[in-house]
Amino acid sequence: MAGLLQVFAGIYIIAVSKHCMKKLLLGILLVPLAAMYKLPSSKAPSVEVRSGAWPINLERTTDRPGVSYSLIFRDEQVMNANVLDTLDFPNIEQLRYFGKGLTALKVGTNGDIARFKDYSITRADKKFDGGIWFVLKDQFCSTSFQQPEADIIVKTIKQW
């Protein structure tokens, strides 16, 4: 009986080692395939468009019902305090409309306005600063930013 048990144990160990070897070989073969398949890059939840005294951030928030987007900026109408305001976009379509407005104003002329339901964007060319500025006005607040910052916003929207 002891001899039969040793033979059975030896066969069991060989069977287990063959099974483990198959897993090991299969894993080694799949690693190069997994390396060739590029997983989608994780999208940053927040992008700093401008830092400093007058910051602008574009943020993506994942909630249970879905994803919402926000443009957070310092209100330029309040000079004696740091008041941050938020322009909310309930979905990606609304955020893309904002990006399309910036893109249309980029090729427009001085004084062009993109009006939306809750806010407007005005293009303001400044001769002395040498650049294109955009003035974003909400019902209670406003901020301005230059073309390179608008390009960062549009690029981020396209990536999201």
Fold and architecture overview:
- With about 160 residues, the protein is of the alpha+beta class.
- Strands 1-2-3-4 form a 4-stranded antiparallel β-sheet.
- It starts with a helix and ends with a helix.
- The chain has helices at about 1-35, 90-105, 145-160; strands at about 45-50, 55-60, 65-75, 85-90, 115, 120-125, 130-140, 140-145.
- The protein has 2 domains: about 1-40; about 45-160, Secreted effector protein pipB2 fold, CATH 3.30.2450.
Structural class, by secondary structure, is alpha+beta
Instruction: Output the CATH topology of the largest domain.
Output: Secreted effector protein pipB2 fold
Which value, in Å, is the CA radius of gyration? 28 Å
- The CATH level-2 architecture of the largest domain is identified as 2-Layer Sandwich
Count of helical stretches: 3
Low confidence ranges: 38-42
CATH hierarchy class name of the largest domain: Alpha Beta
Largest sheet: 4 strands, antiparallel
Helix content range = 25-40%
Strand order of the largest sheet: 1-2-3-4
Taking all residues together, what is the mean pLDDT?
81
Give the DSSP E fraction (strand runs of 2 or more residues). 25-35%
First-residue to last-residue Cα separation: 69 Å
What string, H for helix and E for strand, traces the elements in order?
A: HEEEEHEEEEH
How many strands appear in the DSSP assignment?
8
Briefly summarize what is shown.
By secondary structure, the protein is α+β, with helices and mostly antiparallel strands. The protein has 2 domains: 1-39; 46-159, Secreted effector protein pipB2 fold (2-Layer Sandwich).
